[in-house]
Amino acid sequence: MPAPKASRSSARFPSRLAGPALALVLLASPSLGWAEDGASGAAVSSLATTTDGELLKVQGGDLYASRDQGRSWIELALPAEATGRIDEVAVAAGPDEALYASGPDVGVFQSKDDGKSWTNVGGTLPSLHVTAFAPHATEASTLYAFIPEKGIYRSRDAGGEWTMMARGPAPREGALLDQMDAVVDNVRQFLHTDMEGSMESGWLYAATSEGLRVTMDCFCLWRETGEFPGTVEAVAADPTHPEDVYAAAGAELFKSADGGRTFSTAAAPETPVTAMTVQAGGLVYAGTEDGAVLVSRDKAAGWTRADE
Amino acid sequence: MSRRCLIVLAGVLATSASTAQVPSPLDPATVEAGRAIYGENCVACHGERGQGAENWRQPDENGNLPPPPHDASGHAWRHPDAVLYHMVLDGWRDPFNKMEDLTMPPFEGVLEPREIRAVLIYVKTLWTPEQRAAQAEESRDRPFPDEAHTPVGHGRP
């Protein structure tokens, strides 16, 4: 829909406003202003992209947007009702491309006006303790949220109602039937893709403290994919080629061209990667532990700072 | 299965089925026809009581999944009728399977549409009422294909 796009651009990027008006906006709204990329030095905890190339990041609990592939950023308003720190940002499928912000003491908030206002859509979840969140790759209203002490919840109406679907990925020692109530302690991130072959509509990946897990989105069976002995910090896939999956673990970076059946080592930035996203077409972004955002134009064969 | 596990599993199922209607009774004649079809075509892989293969959660050396159970311990109930129907008709290949073989063989040309429907209705008798209710809810928008709606014994489509 063209109208929301126009609204988004003007709302997120005050550079399009006339100079005096821009000054007034910045003075009146302390939450809107140009931010030095990585100024805080805090780790980038989440990255996301829109279909028109906008890049979003969460750094130090704050939310930023960039329309020039990470060269400059503006800070967006956070949900005023949020009681905790935002850890993740995600963009839903569909023409509206609603934004979602979530965190372990936050629940889930939605914005349909490019971050100007936020609505709590986690109200029917049993807890605010959402440690992983992902929108469906193609269904605008389908969302997934993980609450460690409860399980995986799915909403099919953009957060109006949530239904518990499964407990979650089992620990390595808990894959047997008699331990099926156990789940990995730390699920850091979800990723939904529409890679072919699912019995339902796609696949859900989970970056966990015990490697990378994947299940069809019927939640029939979690399986471990790749050989990641420790924590997987981030996982991302190319939305136009969902078989191309990237995973960051420790100081290393891995990529797969077959949906995670096999991984090979990719070039890793000097600083450990803490967040990733892939723009349609294959532009790969990585946020790092020291607050930098890097970009790769060759499927993680090489990296440059996005602000250079 | 531990007591805690049972409690958690029951909680998952109860929550999943919380918005579902009570499932309608299954037609006894169709169930019996489906039972016979299951015995002839499905038992070898999925077990006499739908218990599936041992260690069905563990992929084999080729990355392929052993036949899963179709009883209450399995996951067939998580899929709507349309998906189950096409799974039987067309077969299915697990993309994590390193071989070209299908994970589940197709039964097109082996079973008539109404036979596929009958065998799936029989499988539903292996589920709990909560699972059947949840599956019925999932099937509301994705029911059996129309051509499969001819009851068993009422002529060929």
From TrEMBL, chain A:
Write out the entry's keywords from A to Z.
Signal
Q: Look up the signal peptide feature and give its range.
A: 1-35
Nucleotide-binding among keywords: no
Has UniProt tagged this entry with the keyword Plastid?
Answer: no
Which Gene Ontology BP annotations are present? xyloglucan metabolic process
Q: Which InterPro entries match?
A: Sialidase_sf, WD40/YVTN_repeat-like_dom_sf, Xyloglucanase_GH74
Coiled-coil segments on the chain, per record:
none
Task: Give the protein's recorded name.
Answer: Photosynthesis system II assembly factor Ycf48/Hcf136-like domain-containing protein
What species is this protein from? Answer: Consotaella salsifontis
UniProtKB/TrEMBL annotation, chain B:
Q: Which residues form the Cytochrome c domain?
A: 29-127
Signal peptide annotation: 1-20
Q: Which UniProt keywords apply?
A: Heme, Iron, Metal-binding, Signal
What Pfam families does the entry give? Cytochrom_C
Query: Example GO molecular function term?
Result: metal ion binding
**What are the start and end residues of every segment in region (Disordered)?**
52-76, 132-157
PROSITE patterns documented for this protein: CYTC
| Compositional bias ranges of the Basic and acidic residues kind | 135-149
Q: Which PANTHER family has this protein been placed in? A: BLL4482 PROTEIN (PTHR35008:SF4), BLL4482 PROTEIN-RELATED (PTHR35008)
The name this protein carries in UniProt is Cytochrome c, mono-and diheme variants
Lineage in the entry?
Bacteria, Pseudomonadati, Pseudomonadota, Alphaproteobacteria, Hyphomicrobiales
